[in-house]
Amino acid sequence: MNYFFRLSLVGSLLVLFTFVLLNGQDDRIKVMTYNVLNYPNANNASDNAVRATLFKEIVQEAGVDAIMIQELKSSAGADQLLNELNNNILGIVYARAPIYNQYTGLGNMLFYNTAKLGFISQADVPQVNLDFVGGFDNANPRPPTHYRLYVQDPLLATHSDTIYLDLISAHLKASDGGGSGNVIADRERRLNGCEDIVDYMATLPTARNVVVGGDFNFYDDEYISDTDNDGHFEPGYGALVNSTLNDVIGAWRGNSSASVGVFTQSTRTSTSDNILSETNGGATSGLDDRFDLIFMDNNVIGNTQNVQYVVGSYDEYGTPTNVNGSALDGTSPVKNQLHQMSDHYPVCVELDIYYPLGCTVYPTINAANTTCTAGAGSGQITVNASITNGNTLAYSLDGNTYQSSNVFSNLNNGTYTIYVRDNTTNCTSQQTGIVINCNTVCSISQINVTQNCTGNGAAYTLDISFDAINLGGTLVDVSIAGTTYGPYALSGSGPTYNLSIPASDFTGDASDLQTGVTVEVADPNITTASGVILINEVLINADGGGADTDNGTGEFIELFCAGPGPCDIGCYIVGDDDYAIIIPSGTVLQAGDFYVLHGDNISLGNGGPLPVGTQFFNWNDNTNSSNIESLSGSASVGSLTNGSEQVYIWDPTGTVVDGVIWGGGSNNLGQTYSINQVAACGGGSLSLTQSNNVGSASNSGGGDAQPIHLDSAGNWNTSSTNPTPGANNTSQYPTDNTPTGSQCLGMTTYNEQNCGPMVVASSVSLKVFLEGPYQTSVGQMHRILNAQNLLPSQHPYNVAPYNYTGGSSITTFPTQMVDWVLVEARTGTTNTTTIETKVGILLQNGNITDIDGSTPLSFDLTVGSNYYFVIRHRNHLDIMTVNSIAQASSINYDFTSSTTQAFGSNQQKNVGGTAVMFAADMTQDLVIQNTDFDAWKVQPAQLNVYKLEDANLDGTVQTTDFDLWQFNKAKLTPMELDY
Fold it and tell me: What sign has the CA pseudo-torsion 814, 817, 820, 823?
């Protein structure tokens, strides 16, 4: 009931929070001990892998943070279990103790949750309690192992007060008969092992929290003598419980149905239970012995070192309830895993952790207000917090990721914890139990839009999918960029639906690649569909503000309009077997709204504040007296008792719409009553029958202010505590914040995608060397033209035969520039396939760049297509890539690595192992021949010029240029490179 939630719940949480700061635990750690039965088996790797998975599933289901194991046979086995543990669905990262010691073929190991615990050290418990008899000693064959850890306190750096956890894993001698040489009783070996533990604990620091767990092989709780004549007594057990260690279970007897709840062996009843091919034997007598135990020292029991045992958490995990039964007889969700993994059951305890107070000033959480801006997934928490030192605060929902804003939005339904941190000191406060429960009468969400190109230019249609609950029908309207289309029939059975917009209704045009196109999906039926009215909560035996109850004046009955549309409840009747209330004519609730029939004192511990949209009927004021009728001679309205009672709602015809019975109902259950309708509802006589076919709740009785409420599964529940309707009633709907309360609409946007070939900018990095300026001694070209300021600011390719008009002029030449070049991108090998041409700058190292001298050339290329690239120079023979190159965001091609990198036969020249472009095509006709010599010959020797006849690009026309022509004459370019 939302109108009580915001005040009563927040107020009670503030009181609870104050208590938590002083006394409440800050974290909880769960510890397990588990005998894993000869793991791993050296002869069967497949069984080991299966058992590792079983182990992981048991630990994961139990949700433990520290696991002490016994009967581990190798360090490799520990690694195998650890690797599988870390393959969990909980996101926990486990680590293992670093040292594995193998004792008589078996050993101990520890795994721990690194988010909660850190590792300090490990040590074997010294074996000092032993005797020698006949050449044999009676020491325990497997010394216990001590693991010292610390708790990962998030504020440890602030207060530097470490909380330690000391875990001791023990595996004492099995059997109750004679030992080595049949002269030393096995229980004496167990006694010595226990005495070793007690003596060792006395050497530990005062700041300790000791938990001793393992397979102790104790047969009895008697430790002085066998008084019950069952053949067993365990002096070792006495050594432990008479020290600082505690067995919280107390007295027990082996193979006794009275103690079946504490037994830990065996999970199997016979050898046929050994399902895996290699289970290494193990006990097969079924559940009859308490071999595995956990003891805790006084510090843990009394919380003297910030760690305390959680009373009632000691758990022999997954055991059945029958003596001599197997794990398969139990109800544990991992009973099959327990049955196969080992012949022992694990034992668990929970420990509350109380972090030391390292801060003098904490943030104060004044309030945590929840709202629902729409339906599920729209929850919002607004935190009101302050701190007396004036420092800035940060806010978090997980204690790890903090934000500066005090508002958390778009939250899913659930229970949240909020954290508020002082950003200067890192001192943190938290508040638990913040409930978000946003449901809507109708919701449309998760809208996905798929653009379908029609194949006709840039035209497209749309496919739409979305999630919805409580639609009013199978049709929806779709609005695209403000124009409504439809209605359209849906495919799918929910909650996910699909529809397609036909081209005859909507054909988009993607030529302008518009972004942020709005799409709305709306239920056209929602504004006319009738809503369903139901009883949501009843408060009985109301709190009168003192010791006495206030039956009648503080009680209430809450109705809820569950949609999908508005609820017209005018002339409906609500009552028990004492009275009937006729709701005034014209009363209409919007979907998601409440109607509360109540006495005078609903503010006295019985609820508030009230959400917008709630309407009321006070049965104790004179305003509504004409709408109240007695059914059985009752003098006054009210008195909903704790015992046998019922409440109904009938429609204007007298038909039962909803109802709830508690305590079995009154003696009048099933009786028919007659009332007179009020004139505004048409008057006349009306029969009201109290049907048995309504909801039922068992009432605990006693106590003030007991709410009977509908839960999320549609069942009725009761509570014997003060009402907190918003928390108890998990099926409640929030206040509908839409203006009409009946709109069902979802919205999204999409960006148009290109329906033609997708053209994108591609960065093209090409590398070439010109023979004329190439210097073999340094492996790059000279830049004499640049150094002598002979390069033109405008590229030389704006005349025939190139006639290229693009490109910009430059005034400041890149330092490494050699000359201008022209680059073409082609879809084929001929000039008719050229799609784009760019002028470029050729640098000393052979790289071709844009006119800035650093950025590669950029070409607009079609995704999925292949391209040839042509390099043209004004007095060298042009070249082209030998093969086409697939479009990519970044393309790299090096002509200099081999003469075969150029298209055609020997279209580059090998100079000193480097491929270069042929020099001396002075007439730019793609052939080096006599016409080039003639052009050179008619030029007298010229200095400081930028001429085609300057084949070596040194600014001088002379015999060195003739020499280049002489060596290259009769060389021509393939016809594919014609202009």
Answer: negative
